[in-house]
Design goal:
The protein is an all-beta fold. It has no helices and 10 strands.
Length: about 110
Amino acid sequence: MNINFNDIKVEDLANFKGGEKSAKMQFFVDENNRILRGCLIPGASIGLHTHTTNSEIMYILQGSGKVLYDGEYSEVHVGDVHYCPKGHEHSLINSGKEDLIFFAVVPEHK
């Protein structure tokens, strides 16, 4: 199966998961996974949240920022992968000067 994000509507989600500003997101969702491409403008963030039934893998495509993972900050840059396992919490923050674009997979754990 191929997923073409050019054919998926962009959703502008204000204060996504309690974050700052808005996130532009494109979602493909089925019963097992959520696959998405997201964009955070400078100063925007995805709010701190816990993965209780799933995990998340994020690949940074453009820009830079930081991740708050289980209470500790770390920087992310193009080519980095951030992994948040089930039972852990994280947030993504665009602390850079350009859009932060990322690809993420969120598999459900049964």
